[in-house]
Amino acid sequence: MSPSGRPWPLSLMFLLGMGMASEKINCPSRCSCQYLEVNCTGQQLQEFPAAIPLDTRQLILAANNISYLPAVELSFLADLVYLDCRKNLLGDDLDFTFIGVAKLVYLDLSFNNLTQVTFSTFSHLLSLVVLKMSDNPNLVTIEKDAFANNTWLRHLDVSRTGLTFLDTSTVRDLPNLRFLGLSDNLWHCNCSFLDFITWMTESNVHFPDADNITCYTPEGLHALKMPAVEAQLHFNCLTQLYKRDYIFLCLIGFCIFFAGTVAAWLAGICAVIYKVHTSKGEEGRGEAEEDI
To answer: Which of 72, 109, 113, 188 sits CB 3.0–4.6 Å from 164 for a disulfide?
Structure first.
C-alpha cells in the first residue's frame, strides 16, 4: 500500500470516533439521543435532565418522577416544539414555566398532579396545537381565560380529572378547536352549566368517548349524558320557579297593587278638589249676574 493512501482511512475513523464521542457527551445521562431528539422515557429521573443539546426539537420525559420543570433550563431550548411529560409528578406550580419555549406545538402533561390552570400557565405558548392534561385527578380549576392566547389549539384533553365546571368561553373562543376530551369527570350539571351543554350540542367540535361524558351531580341527573340532559336542564332552569321566585313575584304584585291604589286615591282626591273648585267658580259667576 502506498504511504499516501494510509492516512485517509485513519483520519476518517478518527473523525467518526470524535463525532460519536461528541454525541455521547452532549446527551444527558440515562437518556438516548438522536438527531434533534432526546428521549429519557422510564429512567426514574427525579429532576429535569441536565446538558440537553440546545438544538433539541423533541424532548420526551415520560414515565419518570420529575416534580418540577425549571423555567430557566427550558428557556435554553428555544427551538423545542414537542414536549412529553406524561406520567410524572408535576404539581400546580407551572405558571410562567413555559415562558421560553414559545415554539412549542405539542405538550403532554397527562398522568400528573396538576391542580389548576391559570392564564399564566400557557399564555406564552402562542403556537400550541395539542395540549393533553387527562388523568390529573386533582385538577379542579381551569380559569376562564386560561387558553386566551392559545388560539391555534386544535386538540385539548381534560378527561379523567377532578373538574366539575368549565366556563363556556374557555373553549368556545378557541377558533381552531376540533377535539375536546371531557369524559369521566365529575360534572355538576346545574343551571350555570346549561350554556356549556348547549354549546356542546351546537359546536362542530369532536367529543371522544361521548358515552362517558355524563353528569355526576345533582343526584336526579347522575349518570345522564351531558348533551341529552340539555332538555331537562332547560325545564328546570328556565320554567321551574323556586320559593324565592314566588316571594319575589308576590312582592312585585303587592308593589303594583299598592302603587295602583295610591294612584287611584290621588286621582280621586284631585277629581274632588277640581269639582269643588269648579262648583265655587260657577256659584261666584251666578251671584255676579244676580247683582247686575
So the answer is: 188
